[in-house]
Amino acid sequence: MTATLLDGKKLAETIREEIRLATAKFIAETNVQPSLTVILVGENPASQVYVRNKETACIAAGMKSDVIRLPETTSTDELLELIEKLNSDASVHGILVQLPLPKGIDEKRILDAISPEKDVDAFHPENVGLISQGRPRFLPCTPYGIQELLRRYSIETAGKEVVIVGRSDIVGKPMALLMVQKGAAADATVTVCHSRTRDLSEVTRRADILIVAIGKAEFVTADMVKPGAVVIDVGMNRKEKTVIGDDGQPTVKNKLVGDVDFDAVKEVAGAITPVPGGVGPLTVTMLLLNTLNSARQSASNA
Ligand code: GUN
Fold this sequence. Notes:
The protein is α/β, with parallel strands linked by helices and 302 residues long. The protein has two domains: 86 residues, Rossmann fold, CATH 3.40.50; 139 residues, Rossmann fold, CATH 3.40.50.720. It contains ten helices and eleven strands. The strands form three sheets. A six-stranded parallel sheet has the order 1-11-8-7-5-6. Strand 5, helix 7 and strand 6 form a beta-alpha-beta unit. Bound molecules: guanine (GUN).
């Protein structure tokens, strides 16, 4: 059996075009341009790429994008002061502090300082609480993107066994909160696995929908997947691969791989997301939608 490919890249293009049109309509109606400010501290190479992607996507959607780049030596207090300024700037609708922050900065204090009304990552405890109670202000971008992928590919979730591997605050835990809620693209029976789970393969093989977010290259193998299951791979790992060139000489190249052994698992699964081109492009797309929705909420409160 060869799985259906869940094309996150193509779906992201479709949704981004919808957001672009909705943004143009919003601007025409209100004369307000939705605006996102991203704060990047330090020189983390992966973060630099992610932030550039966010900036490009924002501009393409017709939104205002500001990126504030700060040195590695920035203190918690300096960052708190900047966030306070952005919180009280009515022209800023979304504030995102790119993670991870350099060692020495108090990440919890920083994330807690972002106004919940501008917290387009949905990391603030108030927003997590609202999600938990099924009345979200914003949805966290990666889980929201995955839920949208399931919805738009008409993958039934009601009563299904959803198994999530990984319990991070960014993906695993909020993903579980979304899938367990009442309503469309949810209503699932949810299990969250982690490093202390006993007999992991036995649990993952129960999954009708298996969502993997642990950051370990090709960790999920074919024997861990029930035939016909839907497999969602959130991983983004660099793997060294030796390639023999035309001159017969080996060179080591960096290849981007997920948390799932794609080539083997696609022969067992019913549907699967690739890496790259699966979940990643949807994450940025949902950030755009959260920024537009924040601008809408701000306009309706004005
Ligand atoms: N770093 C990796 N993923 C994310 C994310 O979703 N939001 C932020 N702010 N930083 C990240």
